[in-house]
């Protein structure tokens, strides 16, 4: 759909470009909020209650960000694309979150990668909008501070006393889950099991 107007004092072409970029941020944040609820429901094991509750707190914060981004898109003169298909098309990940039911530490390892991707996307957007739209830049900077804080709450669980992350060097959510899953059971290991529908991490007993 053709972009018809821009905020006062802004070029339509700039508003259109920034709205397009925000659609991707909207999709990533929506994907993140759904993933946090998914973990809220499907996490198991030692530490369940604190992570179950933390996931709800973080999902609430992220839902607030979704609304801010969507309403900035509409203020820029575009349509906020928050429907499921639009989210799946626009998000920077190419698949849904990798874990199903799984232990606390496996989910926290995987969530470290999820936050890494979303925050990197926000920082990239801040770089791009800075010259033409300080209002969107300000919005994204404020959100990135909150995302960094949420990320720290995840990372504090997978860090050692030197500050080294168990997920360091991992590429995928499943790989990060595997390197973190043993942390509540020193010396413990996990194995990766592939089922028909999805991969599951199963602690070795
Ligand atoms: Fe709940």
Strand order of the biggest β-sheet = 1-2
Oligomer: single chain
| CATH homologous superfamily title | Ferritin, core subunit, four-helix bundle
Number of helices: 6
Stated plainly, the CATH topology is called: Ferritin
The bound ligands are:
fe (ii) ion
Radius of gyration: 19 Å
Given helix and strand content, the structural type is mainly alpha
CATH class: Mainly Alpha
3D architecture notes:
With 205 residues, the chain is mainly α. It has helices spanning 12-42, 48-75, 84-90, 104-129, 134-155, 173-180, and strands at 43-44, 102-103, 190-194, 199-203. The protein has one domain (12-203): Up-down Bundle (Ferritin), CATH 1.20.1260.10. It contains six helices and four strands. The strands form two sheets. A two-stranded parallel sheet has the order 1-2. A two-stranded antiparallel sheet has the order 3-4. Strand 3 (190-194) and strand 4 form a beta hairpin. The model is unreliable at 186-194 (pLDDT under 50). Fe (ii) ion is lined by residues 40, 56.
């Amino acid at each position: 759909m053709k972009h018809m107007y821009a905020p006062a004092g802004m070029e339509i072409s700039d508003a259109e470009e920034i709205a397009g970029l925000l659609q991707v941020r909207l999709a990533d944040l929506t994907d993140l909020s759904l993933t946090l609820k998914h973990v809220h429901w499907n996490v198991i094991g030692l530490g369940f209650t604190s992570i179950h509750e933390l996931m709800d707190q973080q999902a609430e914060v992220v839902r607030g960000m979704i609304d801010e981004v969507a309403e900035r898109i509409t203020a820029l003169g575009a349509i906020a694309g928050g429907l499921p298909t639009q989210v799946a098309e626009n998000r920077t990940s190419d698949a849904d979150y990798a874990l199903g039911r799984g232990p606390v530490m496996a989910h926290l390892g995987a969530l470290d990668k999820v936050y890494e991707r979303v925050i990197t996307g926000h920082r990239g957007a801040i770089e791009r909008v800075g010259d033409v739209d300080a209002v969107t830049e300000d919005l994204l900077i404020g959100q990135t501070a909150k995302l960094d804080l949420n990320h720290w709450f995840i990372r504090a669980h997978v860090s050692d006393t030197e500050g080294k992350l168990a997920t360091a060097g991992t590429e995928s959510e499943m790989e990060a889950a595997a390197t973190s899953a043993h942390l509540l059971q020193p010396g413990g290991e996990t194995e990766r099991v592939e089922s028909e529908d999805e991969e599951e991490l199963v602690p070795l007993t």
